[in-house]
Amino acid sequence: MLQLLALGAIGILVVRQLYTAVYNLYFHPLASFPGPKLWIAFPVLRYISQCRGIFDQQMVKYHERYGEVVRFDDVSLSFTTAQAWKDIYGYGHGQHQWPKPEFRPPGSTDHILFSNDANHARFRKGLSHAFSDQALRKQEHLIKDYVDMLVTALHGEAESGKQVDMTMWYNLTTFDIISDLAFGEPSNCLKNKEYGEFITRIFKFFPIVPFVALARFYPLVWRLISLFIGGRVAKARMDLFQMGHDAVTKRKNDTSKNGRGDFMESLLKYSDNKEKITDAELAGNAHILFLAGSETTATLLAGVTFWMLRTPGTMKKAVEEVRSAFDKEQEITFSSASTKLPYMLACLEEGLRMYPPVPTVLIRTTTEAATVSGYTVPKGTQLGVHQMSTYWSPANFHEADVFHPERWLPSAVDDADSPFYNDNRDARQPFSVGPRNCIGKNLAFSEMRQILARVLWNFDLEMVDKDLDWPNQKAYTVWQKGPLVCSIKLRKDLL
Ligand code: HEM
């Protein structure tokens, strides 16, 4: 009898799955949009692809096959056009943004990245001081101190003839900078030449993030998986949160640190005068700022260094530019690096295209029927621009698979004879657009220019593994980037 009941239950499940698959493929309001049939019929496969870190690479292939709009599960569409940025994320005159799905793991605190629009506005206002031009000027000396430490450490490595992993060195630097701005003290990465416990936990946490999305949409599948890893996920999250919380409490109580223009000062100032930001929200925001502001910047620096080393002509040009623009290293400041180095800046722009630090699709949901990039989209559709597919598309960029910094120089933008004249530059928005775009964009550019210029000023780098397959990496919202091992020499005329 029990066996019969079990068989009956399994039968009902199978029939239900088949019914849903047929409905998804042929009768769903999105049925006319092209996409991978298996993912549309069985959406759990898309989440599994994310858990395996291969979702973004697969999306590039699907866009190549199906074109500028791809249906990538039952309810989701991905676009690769400039117009889609405007229509989805509310960028430009008269545009409004579609809301972010409220995506917060159970038990976690609200913060700027995953909050609803009302809380988001409160947090964004609370942080606005910390990202103003005035704050950036205050932060410059703090950031410079860490770049000095990086350069000194690399001098030591160069003198001892060691090979260096530039991915690690960039990460050590940006983790220290953002830790100081978010928590009021460095994570001592550069001092100890290692990531330390907090950051090692963060690296371990990134691959777990897609499992949290899986849990949200498939509680049953999640229950099965959590038999094996559930405890580990919960513990990783709690440990990370507790460490962040302790650091924030310490910074909050240390009033001697006020006046340095850091993130906490901005939040506390706002919190005192206006709507209260609770201690848990302070910790949640500090935590997310730390994650959002460190890994992304280091990723771009590693990516651009890889591409410049892979195309030695670009590296040579950028090095010559930096070394001829300044008489002394001390002249490299936020301001001079942003005005005197057009070619190096173009390398950073092209790095953001070839290796966007957030390569994936940032999901929004339509709350009514809408026109997106010329397509009619029903209410309740989850949609976004898939960054990697957009930036690597030959429909948007001439020789899209080649690192060409020239495409960002004024000569290419203005000269109709340039092969890059018709590049669709507005399709590339690595910091996203609209009211929920990256609040740290200016800080990120200041950091990246300063760090790259100082590295190029001082050192000659050479990639050790000439065949390194850098673009073929896994990604879990951010890249799972590997080591970038280089031989490093102090430039000859400094010896
Ligand atoms: C190259 C470096 C960076 C890139 C490419 C980047 C990219 C992005 C993107 C694409 C978003 C939108 C996320 C979404 O819609 O879910 C975002 C949001 C955000 N970023 Fe960045 N980011 C970078 C550096 C930074 C830095 C240095 C900070 C400073 C701490 C920062 C803080 C944030 C915050 C707080 C948000 C949420 C903003 C909001 O929801 O209002 N980012 N970033």
For the largest beta-sheet, the strand count, sense and barrel status come to: 4 strands, mixed
Helix content range: 55-70%
Residue windows where pLDDT falls under 50 for at least 5 positions: none
Number of helical regions: 20
Instruction: Quote the distance from N terminus to C terminus.
Output: 86 Å
Rg, Å, rounded: 24 Å
> What spatial order of strands do you see in the largest sheet?
1-2-7-4
The global form is: globular
Which percent band covers the strand fraction? Answer: 5-15%
The secondary-structure class comes to alpha+beta
The overall average pLDDT, rounded, is 90
Number of strands: 11
Bound molecules: protoporphyrin IX containing FE
What does this structure look like?
By secondary structure, this protein is of the alpha+beta class. It contains 20 helices and eleven strands. It has helices at 2-27, 37-41, 44-51, 55-66, 82-89, 117-128, 133-159, 166-183, 189-192, 196-205, 209-217, 219-253, 263-273, 279-310, 312-325, 334-339, 342-354, 387-391, 410-414, 441-458, and strands at residues 69-71, 76-79, 163-165, 364-365, 370-372, 375-377, 382-385, 459-463, 475-476, 478-479, 485-490. The strands form four sheets. A four-stranded mixed sheet has the order 1-2-7-4, with helices on both faces. The protein has a three-stranded antiparallel sheet with strand order 3-11-8. A two-stranded antiparallel sheet has the order 5-6. α10 (196-205) packs antiparallel against α12. The model has no long low-confidence stretch (mean pLDDT 90). The structure holds protoporphyrin IX containing FE. Protoporphyrin IX containing FE binds at residues 112-113, 124, 178, 289, 292-293, 296-297, 300, 357-358, 362, 430-432, 436, 438-440, 443-444. Its cofactor is heme. One of its GO terms (molecular function) is iron ion binding. Heme binds at residue 438.
